[in-house]
Backbone:
């Protein structure tokens, strides 16, 4: 969120594409995630956890998440630059979002109306596809992949659109 604010000294002195700052932050966090995931793979090998063939499709799911994260990062970097309080509000929002996404609990524990609401959460589908591939070893339906891809591309396009519209006035707010 604060990648543009932190790079304000460089933005004021040199012309360079401003979207580099949030995208580089998202990519560096993604590389950090890959190293952490490597540690999980090593632990799975040490504990001799059975690995299903569907794990080979995991890079596709990670691509969905990366595209989604870049879009969110672009929107949030603009919002944090214009509205500095967004940095603090985002912590509250992301905590609520985590509990509204079935990460720690199966979606089957929810009542039917809550499951229908849960389907509006884009991260719900990504978590479910991850579970199907890694935990259950089953290939998710093509519909599930589209349920991950379409919101990811929509948020990415929204992020690019918002960033391009507002990037020219950033210098006034940093």
Residues:
């Amino acid at each position: 969120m604060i990648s543009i604010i932190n790079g304000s000294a460089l933005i004021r002195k040199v012309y360079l594409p401003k979207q580099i700052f949030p995208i580089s932050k998202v990519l560096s966090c993604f590389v950090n995630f890959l190293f952490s995931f490597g540690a999980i793979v090593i632990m799975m090998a040490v504990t001799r956890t059975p690995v299903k063939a569907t794990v080979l499709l995991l890079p596709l799911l990670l691509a969905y998440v990366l595209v989604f994260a870049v879009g969110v990062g672009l929107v949030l970097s603009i919002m944090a630059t214009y509205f500095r309080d967004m940095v603090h509000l985002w912590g509250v929002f992301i905590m609520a979002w985590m509990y509204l996404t079935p990460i720690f609990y199966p979606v089957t524990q929810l009542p039917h109306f809550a499951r229908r609401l849960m389907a509006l959460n884009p991260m719900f589908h990504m978590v479910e596809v991850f579970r199907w591939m890694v935990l259950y070893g089953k290939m998710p339906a093509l519909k599930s992949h589209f349920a991950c891809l379409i919101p990811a591309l929509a948020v990415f396009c929204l992020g690019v659109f918002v960033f391009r519209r507002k990037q020219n006035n950033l210098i006034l707010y940093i």
